[in-house]
């Protein structure tokens, strides 16, 4: 751990190291989005379009960044978002990410498209975990996965619903890159993703009695249906700009979802959240936690388990400083009054949260 502490003092150092470590195709798979990458950029642009309204002269000597997510106490309002083909980034894949999450004290969401698979990841380390499922089979196939997830002790199940069709990710096409997961997916299984509908969610809700999350909700209308079906957490996401292009920034989707959900479910969000200050903005807008996707990928590729733990430590430091300078000591004190609309200061892109990279630091 000490060596990761020395090697990585800034979040951007994970990006730099991952860039140097990963083969060209894998690097582009991680950073890329769909089509013209407008949604991807807009996620950052949305965050950059919010400034803070700090309050001063409040005692901020004791700051607490901890919270609870789906009943689990966590050290930070952060979860490790599901990433497919993590084994292409680090040999330990999801198991290494799960161990890091357990060591630090946040939740890991294991992608059904990542090795070493459902059971092995569940056994990988301490701490509750979430299993993320892409529905790529019939009712029997889904039931089997639910039973296996329950038997392996997963705390919650997440169904990703924004992948009805696989988008066109031009970087992957240009580099002729096929992830391990894609190589092992049969075309005929993908029809189940396209056919997935609310009646399937209703059935899954009946079968799965532990917390259920829907990931990829991007409108108040769909959040309302999810609440009516008894979903426990609405995960506002546009898949990190990797699915529908020309979508809205997830930070801009939050207000309508928060209003509609009105406390009936927890709200998770991801998409471009790369800094402690980004996390503070999401919490101020009513999210209970923030998923980090590419940041996890960079840290894992750069330094495995230690890297992911170190990445979370730096995020925690950034969030602590942000809260203190805003004049708050607990996450519950963040609200819309902390935020103000502002013009972004630079063009947004996948790595624009780290401007020193451009200067070659
Ligand atoms: C390389 C990569 C693979 C991903 N694989 C999955 C996946 O298997 N399942 C899923 O629900 N989302 C997947 N996502 C989306 C992430 O869970 C998350 O929504 C997104 O990365 C958040 O944006 P961020 O990368 O800007 O943090 C993937 C994202 C990336 C970057």
Describe this structure in words.
The chain contains 16 helices and twelve strands. By secondary structure, it is α/β, with parallel strands linked by helices. The protein has one domain (2-335): Alpha-Beta Barrel (TIM Barrel), CATH 3.20.20.70. An eight-stranded parallel barrel has the order 4-5-6-7-8-9-10-11, surrounded by six helices. β8 (212-217), α12 (220-228) and β9 form a beta-alpha-beta unit. 51% of the residues are buried. The structure holds flavin mononucleotide. Flavin mononucleotide binds at residues 29-30, 81-84, 111, 113, 132, 160, 215, 237, 239-240, 242, 270-273, 291-295, 297. Residues 29-30, 81-84, 111, 113, 132, 160, 215, 237, 239-240, 242, 270-273, 291-295, 297 line the site of flavin mononucleotide (FMN).
List keywords for this structure.
eight-stranded parallel barrel, about 350 residues, TIM Barrel, binds flavin mononucleotide, 16 helices, two-stranded antiparallel ribbon, alpha/beta, 12 strands
Please provide a brief summary of the model.
With 361 residues, this protein is of the alpha/beta class. Helix content is 44%, strand content 14%.
The global form is: globular
Query: The CATH topology is what?
Result: TIM Barrel
CATH hierarchy class name: Alpha Beta
Number of domains: 1
At the fourth CATH level, what is the homologous superfamily?
A: Aldolase class I
Q: Count of helical segments?
A: 16
The computed structural class is alpha/beta
Distance between the termini: 23 Å
Q: Identify the bound ligands.
A: flavin mononucleotide
Helix content: 40-55%
**Strand order, sheet with most strands:** 4-5-6-7-8-9-10-11
> Average pLDDT across residues?
97
What portion of the residues fall into strands of 2 or more residues? 5-15%
């Amino acid at each position: 751990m000490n060596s990761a502490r020395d090697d990585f003092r800034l979040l951007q150092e994970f990006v730099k190291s991952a860039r140097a470590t990963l083969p060209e195709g894998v690097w582009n798979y991680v950073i890329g989005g769909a089509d013209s990458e407008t949604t991807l950029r807009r996620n950052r642009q949305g965050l950059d379009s919010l400034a803070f309204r700090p309050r001063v002269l409040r005692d901020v000597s004791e700051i607490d960044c901890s919270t609870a997510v789906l009943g689990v106490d966590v050290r930070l309002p952060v979860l490790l978002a599901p990433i497919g083909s993590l084994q292409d980034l680090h040999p330990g894949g999801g198991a290494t990410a799960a161990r890091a999450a357990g060591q630090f004290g946040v939740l890991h969401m294991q992608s059904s498209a990542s090795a070493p698979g459902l059971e092995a990841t569940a056994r990988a380390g301490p701490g509750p975990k979430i299993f993320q499922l892409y529905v790529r089979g019939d009712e029997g196939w889904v039931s089997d996965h639910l039973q296996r997830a329950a038997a392996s002790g997963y705390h919650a199940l997440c169904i990703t619903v924004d992948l009805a069709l696989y988008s066109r990710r031009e970087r992957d096409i240009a580099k002729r890159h096929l992830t391990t997961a894609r190589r092992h997916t049969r075309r005929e299984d993908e029809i189940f993703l396209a056919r997935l509908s609310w009646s399937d969610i209703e059935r899954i809700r009946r079968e799965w009695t532990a917390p259920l999350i829907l990931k990829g909700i991007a409108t108040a209308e769909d959040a309302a249906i999810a609440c009516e079906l008894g979903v426990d957490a609405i995960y506002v996401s546009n898949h990190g700009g990797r699915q529908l292009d020309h979508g809205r920034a997830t930070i801009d989707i939050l207000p309508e979802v928060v209003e509609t959900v009105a406390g009936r479910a927890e709200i998770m969000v991801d998409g471009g959240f790369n800094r402690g200050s980004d996390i503070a903005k999401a919490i101020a807008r009513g999210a209970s936690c923030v998923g980090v996707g590419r940041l996890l990928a960079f840290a894992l590729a750069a330094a495995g388990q230690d890297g992911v733990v170190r990445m979370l430590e730096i995020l925690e430091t950034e969030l602590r400083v942000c809260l203190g300078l805003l004049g708050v000591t607990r996450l519950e004190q963040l609200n819309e009054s902390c935020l103000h609309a502002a013009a972004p200061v630079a063009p947004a892109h996948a790595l624009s949260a780290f401007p020193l990279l451009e200067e070659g630091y």
